[in-house]
């Protein structure tokens, strides 16, 4: 089995999980301790929007690569496919279901001349933010498990696949 799909799989995993952890657990907290809440919220929203797009692109590509690698005998990628699917569900729900509502509330508050935290939308925004945070946490935990369970190497995955095929033909 060519090592290129395996290497691309690792690269996409590192990009997705690395950006997910960096933006959510390093950059966003620093923004809120360094800037006023309104500015920090606006910058964080932009960063999470970018993270959402990274997640969608990497997730779709990783699922496609999983299928290619499984067809080439990489059985280790079968389990990973479910982790990626779970991460993709989290990012799609957060990006396409929750974020539009949160942004609409933020814009409505700004048009009323205040930030969302001091507006009539504060409780609704807080609830959506809490749900979004739970999905982000689940996506992050799945990402850590994905990175942890990555096959040791392309050659190892190929050897495991060859053993599996040999076992089927011998039995």
Please provide a written account of the structure:
The structure is a single chain. With 171 residues, the chain is an all-alpha fold. It has one domain (3-151). The chain is built from five helices and no strands. The chain has helices at 3-34, 37-71, 76-111, 122-148, 154-170. The radius of gyration is 20 Å and the shape is elongated. Residues 11-107 form the TMEM205-like domain. InterPro entries: TMEM205-like. Its main location: membrane. Keywords: Membrane, Transmembrane, Transmembrane helix. It is found in: Membrane.
Keywords:
5 helices, mainly alpha, 0% strand, 86% helix, 171 residues
Total strands: the figure is 0
- Domains, number: 1
Q: Classify the beta-strand content into a percent band.
A: under 5%
Poorly predicted regions are none
Structural class by sheet pairing and helices:
mainly alpha
Topology order in helix (H) and strand (E) letters: HHHHH
Please give the count of helices: 5
Query: Given the C-alpha coordinates, what overall shape results?
Result: elongated
Q: Whole-number average pLDDT?
A: 90
Radius of gyration: 20 Å
Please estimate the helix content. Answer: over 70%
Determine the N-to-C terminus distance: 23 Å
- Summarize the biggest pleated sheet: none
């Amino acid at each position: 089995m060519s090592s290129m799909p395996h290497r691309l799989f690792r690269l996409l995993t590192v990009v997705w999980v690395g950006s997910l952890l960096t933006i959510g657990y390093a950059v966003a907290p620093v923004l809120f301790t360094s800037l006023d809440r309104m500015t920090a919220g606006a910058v964080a929203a932009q960063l999470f929007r970018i993270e959402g797009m990274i997640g969608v692109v990497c997730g779709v590509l990783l699922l496609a690569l999983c299928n290619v690698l499984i067809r080439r005998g990489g059985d280790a990628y079968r389990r990973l496919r479910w982790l990626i699917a779970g991460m993709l569900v989290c990012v799609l729900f957060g990006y396409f279901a929750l974020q539009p509502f949160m942004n609409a509330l933020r814009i409505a508050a700004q048009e009323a001349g205040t930030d969302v935290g001091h507006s009539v939308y504060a409780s609704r925004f807080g609830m959506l933010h809490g749900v979004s945070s739970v999905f982000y946490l689940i996506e992050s935990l799945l990402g850590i498990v994905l990175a942890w369970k990555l096959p040791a190497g392309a050659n190892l995955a190929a050897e495991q696949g060859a053993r599996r095929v040999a076992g089927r033909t011998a039995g």
